[in-house]
From TrEMBL:
Catalyses which reaction(s): acetate + ATP = acetyl phosphate + ADP
The protein, known as: Acetate kinase
Site (Transition state stabilizer): residue numbering on this chain: H180, R240
Main function: Catalyzes the formation of acetyl phosphate from acetate and ATP. Can also catalyze the reverse reaction.
HAMAP family to which the protein is assigned, alphabetical: Acetate_kinase (MF_00020)
GO molecular function: acetate kinase activity; ATP binding; magnesium ion binding
Organism phylogeny: Bacteria, Pseudomonadati, Pseudomonadota, Alphaproteobacteria, Hyphomicrobiales
Pathway(s) where this gene product acts: Metabolic intermediate biosynthesis; acetyl-CoA biosynthesis; acetyl-CoA from acetate: step 1/2
GO cellular component: cytosol
Family of this protein: Belongs to the acetokinase family.
Active-site residues from the entry: D149
Protein's UniProt keywords contain Magnesium: yes
Amino acid sequence: MTDKLLLTFNAGSSSVKIGIFEVSGSKPERIGKALVDFSDRPLMLHLTEGPAKFDLPLKAERDDDLAKLLDEVFRELGTHFALDAVIAAGHRIVHGGELFDGPVWLTDETIEQVHSLTDLAPLHQPQALRLIRAVKHLRPQLFQTGSFDTTFHVTQSDLVRRLAIPRALHDRGIKRYGFHGISYRYVARALAEQAPEIAQGKVVIAHLGSGASLCAINEGQSRDTSMGFSTLDGIPMGTRPGWLDPGVLLHLLGPLGKTVDEVEDMLYHQSGLLGVSGLSADTRELLKDRREEARQAIELFTFRIAGEICRLASTLGGLDALVFTAGIGEHQPEIRAEVAERLLWLGAELDDNANRQNALRISTPASRISIWVVPTDEEQMIAEECMSLR
């Protein structure tokens, strides 16, 4: 048993990831992780403790306050870990708006400030708030912190963040924020540890998962990113379209007579890889599928990624390195190879063997752009930021 534990909560739109960390030195060490996937029927707690894995059925139903569900999750976790030793909980929060430029202690006041930003992230912000309030209800004295996906990008210039809309709207907060910042912060640091000379240069990081974006960094700081005002922007994702001509929205809402709710559902849940293929939002399934629609979805995905890399290189004034991370970026060499092939004109050359093995460096010695695979760990970053505030 340990003297101190720390929990992290990573709330997605359809799942909750929980990290269990031991706090015994200067850095939290992960000792377990858990997942509740809201698509499971009945709900299950998927728990990993060291090499052991458990699938534990839950009696609770998903509801708006999550307190009953979390109470049952805590009871199950308590049979594997000494939850009485938990001293803090850190949460991933998607949007920090203009209010936050780093992690914060979640007091009544800061929770209310997080709530005030719900309209900027209607899919993700409410879920994080439900978790924060559920933990507060079950453990009212527990120290809780919030880590934001937007704060890594506060180093971007006003020019990069500005949209070509009336100034009054910009002044009301309608601007480009960028997301996946917790992941980018971790990967930028990991790259600096593995290849410090590369990390100080002009680097594009491709965070490719069911949600996907790219970030241009220089000297470890964010200079530009593919996502803008919302998590819908940028490259195509599993079920989100990425960049979309706003005239399409006017057409849907006008001549086609769609409601705002219908358009929102289409943008968040019916587009992207799923929309193009009509088959799946999962690149693994699409890569195996021989139908033209599946191939078209993959080609559009890699085409847009390569194009966005070039746009970000323009912001940086050059490109020294490309880094792949997250589920697709770390584990799918076929996707990386197709992106790199579209960048041959930039001098990007993959080492096929290193790429197939998901090695750290996957470019050839002759490649003008070094190409890397660096695993991300958002929960580790959340845990460390939580401890930095205690």
